[in-house]
Amino acid sequence: MTAWRFYGRESELAKLIDELDYRMFHSATISGRRGIGKSSLLLEAAALRPATTPLVMCELPSPEEGATEACRVLSVAVEQAGLGRLLGSLRPRSPNHSDRMWFSAIVRHLLENGAVVALDEFHHARGLFLESSIKVVIDRLKFTRAKRPELGKLFVMGSHQQQLFRMPLYDQPLWGRFGAAARLGQWKLSTVMEMAREHGFLAHPGRFMTLWTAFGGLPSQWEGFAVDRDAEALRDFAAWLDDDDWRLAFLDRQRARIVEVAGERYDDGAFVELAPATRDLLLWLGRHAPRGAREHELPAALRKRADPPLEESCGTLVRHLELLAGRVEFLGDSRFCNWTVTDCLAKFQIHVFGVGMRRVKRRAVPGMGLRRRNGELDRLKTLEECSLERMAAAFYAELPWVSESECNVWRRQDPGGAARTGNQVEIDVLARPHPERGGGPVVFGECKRNPEQHRRGQLEQAIDRFMEALENLERRRLFHQEDPPELRDLRRRRRSKVLISPEFTAAQRRRLEGGGFSCLDIPEIARQLEQVSKDARTLRLLQPIPSRDADRRPTCGFAGIDGPFRWQSAAMSCMRCPQPVAAMSTQGLSRDAFRCRRVSRARESLVD
């Protein structure tokens, strides 16, 4: 079995390493939902730096356990970090020291001695009455950093977004105390593909589609599937001859985890505390609108509630929890926003299992368990169609020549303008080229789980009607003296028609390709994203990174090199890294011009 490692997060990791390299004391926040990888990011950044900078990670206990338990947990974390000597050099605790005072004294002593302190689940600090104590520690160290520059860093993290975001507001004790903030989102599709390729999940694209539908870009969910013993049989794709048998076993495993482990539920109380109206909105969209719904399509009970109003509920789900997203359809009315549950785990659990829904007690009858499992399988397949559209849109969004991509673009319209029964989507993906990055085509895509369901003529008709509607919209806007240059550019571009499925056989490709049509499947998406990632890494090596500290010693790569530099060949590599760094023009070379990200932690400069 392939060992789990740290994946992705290149830009966040580089920024965090730069923060750790900064010599002065500062405090920062790292936020993100539970399982997004906050602790892993900090541990990876610390591992890539010299061992002389210790990291103390302390997870604050719940307020019910009290400040005494917080002191004990912090002391254990210090010992685990190998800093027992610092505890020994701390002044003995006097009888006048309360638990809060002793906790802040330990934190301050660690920071004064150059340690990096990370306080996880920091939203518990208010209930533990530690908020003001941490404020005093930050203020004192800020005043003394001019005299003692070699101070540590303080990072606070938490998965309860609502509480954590309220803590630094202007009317709160910690206002203005954090100089930087990092917020982690879910993995990009390229990172998911890199991980899946390494662990063999791409060996069967249809089953990978199921995993993507359930997990999306959540690192903790993928890690659990990759390393937990209860998923060992599911990882052996070769042992399963039928896709539906494998999916039913996967659903059994996920249902058992939801029942047995409260933290596996998207609505765990420590993660989401929502007003009833906001919770009902999320549940209705996840259950009834896998492709999203406009405001006027929501039930009247959700639209007319005043506390909180619909706009406030949507804002909470979008900004704080990142469970919801709203967009205006490309040819739709700008007054109506299409709200969609974007979090795969929440949508999967609500739509397939009904997590959070009110369960009606029913009498057990023979065969009910089988019908329930088959119903879950049918709902999973419906959800996979939507997630395939999202995957295709995310794929095009990561291509460098694409400026914008959308899914669920065009719905069949009756002559009267009303959507037909079933609300079928005819154009599933639209990708527009960047106007300043070459003359790429406009991509129109159709997504089908089963490649045999693709109908080229249907997509052709949908594109023609789409362009006709686009022309009519442009005429109306011109009549009102509005200038829509993006619409004109879209009409002038050549078209690319793409049929998208998890996997195509050679016979299916021969039948579908030709006449301007091409086939795109998950293996091809993985190959193209791998090439894009390689190109991006090459460019990142050459990207100038300004230094935050002029007195910092030069690091490995090209950072902080004074005087002339002799170029040896078209490509050169670092003393401790086999990765080559392409030669470039020295015009405009600054003092801290370049850095090799992979080895900037080696603390060695290149030889002149």
Describe what you observe in this structure.
By secondary structure, the protein is α/β, with parallel strands linked by helices. The chain has 21 helices and 15 strands. The strands form 4 sheets. A 5-stranded parallel sheet has the order 2-3-4-1-5, sandwiched between helices. A 5-stranded mixed sheet has the order 9-10-11-12-13. β14 and β15 form a beta hairpin. The radius of gyration is 27 Å and the shape is elongated. The two termini are 44 Å apart. The C terminus is likely disordered.
The CA-CA distance between the termini, in Å, is: 44 Å
Largest sheet: 5 strands, parallel
Tell me the number of strands: 15
Radius of gyration: 27 Å
Morphology call? elongated
In spatial order, strands of the major sheet run 2-3-4-1-5
Structural class: alpha/beta
User: Low-confidence parts, pLDDT < 50 over ≥5 residues?
Assistant: 359-365, 413-423, 546-608
Salient structural properties:
single chain; 608 residues; alpha/beta; five-stranded parallel β-sheet; five-stranded mixed β-sheet; 15 strands; elongated; disordered C terminus
